[in-house]
Amino acid sequence: MEEQRIAKTHKLVVNNRKTAMVTGVLDVLSFDLNEILLETEQGMLMVKGTDLHVNRLSVEKGEVDLSGSIDSIAYSAISQAGKPNETFLSKLFR
Prior knowledge:
By secondary structure, this protein is mainly β. It has 1 helix and 6 strands, in the order ββββββα.
């Protein structure tokens, strides 16, 4: 039997390009001072900037709070039926 996923709520709130609150986060794939890569209910989310920090992460609630100087935010669609040996980079650059 094929499993059906119901899209959960995803929200991104950016305040003055200095802080951001993201809900609907499934996983934090990578982060450093210049880039944060999140897997969300609506696809991959890449945040670029300078002096970026993950201030709060709640895996149970799927929430992440970010701070720093946010320069860009980009989404990339991912397939929910990903291949088991597929890396997050191959999902991101399909």
